[in-house]
């Protein structure tokens, strides 16, 4: 099983979730208003009030054959809108 972690702008969340559904993913988890520090600095806590500039963390667990379809659908969105995505192996408990 594979795990895909995406950190994207909340503004692009709908397009990313549509790509995940189109790839045939069995489901996903979304956490909104995530903050942190990356190569471009940290996200201001002041953005929490308006939501402007807030990020979302999307987690997808899927079989390897679905992962390639996810890549094809999500990479163009990341290239256009920005964000990061990482794939790792996942083992059920």
SSE order and pairing:
Blueprint lengths: L1 E8 L3 H10 L6 E6 L2 E2 L2 E2 L4 H4 L4 E8 L1 H18 L2 E6 L4
Antiparallel strand pairs: 1-5, 1-6, 2-5, 3-4
Strand order across the largest sheet: 2-5-1-6
Number of separate structural domains? 1
Question: Which structural class should the secondary elements be placed in?
Answer: alpha+beta
Q: What name does CATH use for the topology?
A: Alpha-Beta Plaits
Structure annotation, total helices: 3
The best one-word shape is globular
Radius of gyration: 14 Å
Q: Could you describe the largest sheet, including whether it forms a barrel?
A: 4 strands, antiparallel
Strand content: 25-35%
In helices, the fraction of residues equals 25-40%
What's the overall average pLDDT, rounded?
Answer: 87
Reported CATH architecture: 2-Layer Sandwich
Number of strands: 6
Distance between the termini: 12 Å
Quaternary structure state of the chains depicted:
single chain
Run of helices and strands: EHEEEHEHE
Under CATH at level 1, the class stands as Alpha Beta
Low-confidence stretches: none
How does this model look, in words?
With 93 residues, the chain is of the alpha+beta class. The protein has one domain: Alpha-Beta Plaits, CATH 3.30.70. 34% of the residues lie in helices and 34% in strands. It has helices at 13-22, 47-50, 64-81; strands at residues 2-9, 29-34, 37-38, 41-42, 55-62, 84-89. The strands form two sheets. A four-stranded antiparallel β-sheet has the order 2-5-1-6, with helices on one face. A two-stranded antiparallel sheet has the order 3-4. A hairpin with a 2-residue loop joins strand 3 (37-38) and strand 4 (41-42). The longest helix has 18 residues, at 64-81.
